């Protein structure tokens, strides 16, 4: 059953409102076919059996045509055919005078065509259906030579039927307008939602592209930073090596023979150079097992108390390691400064020049 309904309501078209009306038209036509089939047994109890069967067969055929037309996408035509073949079977008993009460009772059934019109056509066409119903009634009464408005009861029934159709048309029109406005608003909101979703998807794509580009840029910057860091580390290592070489060259310790080392000092001695001097001298004494260390201070412009203290510390440390320290190259102004400062160097062997110290050995 569901598959059959799904097949019947498969309408060709793209407009959502037309598709909704088309599906409603098909469903109503299918219901009318079912009602017509159920009405067949009732015709056998009437006097006009043949006419009733012909009307039912024509109606079923018309409803089938309505379904076929609507499914092909001709929704407006299918709706009008459906309404027409709902109206005609109601007007036919008036024309053929199937019963004495038909001219008075049939107008009330025309409300059904107005209700169907409210479901299957646009609201403005409801008034056309109302006009067609009223015109059809008067035409049917004219063809059947039915006297109308001849007494108060008949007039009241006819006016009630007409008023019922007008009232039904009015309320159906209002309901259709409200439904159409609601559907238009829903379509507008749906379109806005789709547009917003499309813009959001576009922004998301753009954002992903920007994130990817920024990520690549950050990766490139990180690689550059890593390379620069590595290069900086390499330069720092080279710089440290160069400083070490400079420190070693600034206080060189030169071996004269297996037991004698010479340390020529050149330039001013600050705290760092004094410490470096001590380390270099003691390391060389340890490695060579030298017994004499000749310190040449000819190139030292000033020997103050700090420099003298550093020299004395080196002498004491070397003595502890079994090495004698000889101090050479003390210039007169340096000697005078040492005496003025009260620095006692009497326990240190001194010579005026390096040649003199080497010659006395």
From TrEMBL:
Transmembrane segments annotated in the record for this chain: 26-44, 50-70, 77-96, 108-141, 153-173
All residue ranges annotated as the STAS domain in the record: 250-361
PROSITE patterns to which the protein is assigned, alphabetical: STAS (PS50801)
InterPro entries linked to this entry: Bact_StressResp_Reg, STAS_dom, STAS_dom_sf
Pfam families (UniProt xref): STAS
Highest taxon of source: Bacteria
CDD domains: STAS_RsbR_RsbS_like (cd07041)
Sections of the chain in a coiled coil: 183-242
Keywords: Coiled coil, Membrane, Transmembrane, Transmembrane helix
The protein's name: Anti-anti-sigma factor
Organism field: Chloroflexus aggregans
């Amino acid at each position: 059953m569901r598959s059959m309904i799904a097949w019947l309501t498969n309408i060709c078209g793209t407009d959502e409102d037309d598709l909704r009306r088309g599906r409603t038209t098909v469903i109503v036509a299918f219901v009318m076919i079912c009602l017509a089939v159920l009405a067949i047994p009732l015709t056998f109890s009437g006097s006009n059996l043949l006419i009733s069967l012909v009307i039912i067969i024509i109606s079923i055929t018309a409803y089938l045509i309505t379904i076929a037309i609507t499914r092909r996408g001709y929704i407006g035509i299918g709706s009008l055919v459906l309404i027409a073949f709902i109206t005609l079977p109601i007007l036919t008993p008036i024309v053929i005078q199937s019963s004495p009460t038909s001219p008075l009772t049939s107008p009330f059934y025309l409300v059904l065509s107005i209700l169907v019109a409210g479901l299957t056509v646009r609201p403005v066409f409801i008034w056309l259906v109302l006009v067609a119903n009223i015109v059809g009634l008067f035409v049917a009464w004219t063809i059947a030579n039915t006297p109308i408005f001849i007494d108060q009861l008949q007039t009241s029934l006819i006016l009630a039927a007409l008023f019922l159709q007008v009232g039904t048309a009015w309320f159906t029109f209002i309901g259709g307008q409200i439904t159409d406005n609601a559907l238009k608003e829903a379509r507008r909101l749906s379109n806005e939602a789709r547009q917003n979703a499309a813009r959001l998807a576009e922004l998301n794509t753009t954002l992903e592209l920007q994130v990817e580009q920024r990520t690549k840029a950050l990766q490139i910057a990180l690689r550059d930073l890593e390379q620069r860091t590595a290069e900086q580390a390499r330069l720092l290592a080279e710089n440290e090596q160069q400083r070490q070489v400079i420190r070693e060259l600034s206080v060189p310790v030169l071996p004269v023979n297996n037991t004698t080392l010479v340390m020529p000092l050149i330039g001013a001695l600050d705290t760092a150079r004094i410490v470096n001097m001590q380390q270099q001298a003691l390391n060389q004494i340890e490695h060579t097992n030298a017994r004499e260390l000749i310190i040449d201070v000819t190139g030292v412009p000033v020997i103050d108390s700090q420099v003298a203290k550093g020299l004395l510390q080196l002498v004491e440390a070397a003595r502890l390691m079994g090495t004698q320290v000889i101090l050479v190259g003390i210039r007169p102004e340096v000697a005078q400064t040492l005496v003025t400062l009260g620095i006692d160097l009497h326990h240190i062997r001194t010579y005026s020049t390096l040649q003199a110290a080497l010659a006395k050995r």
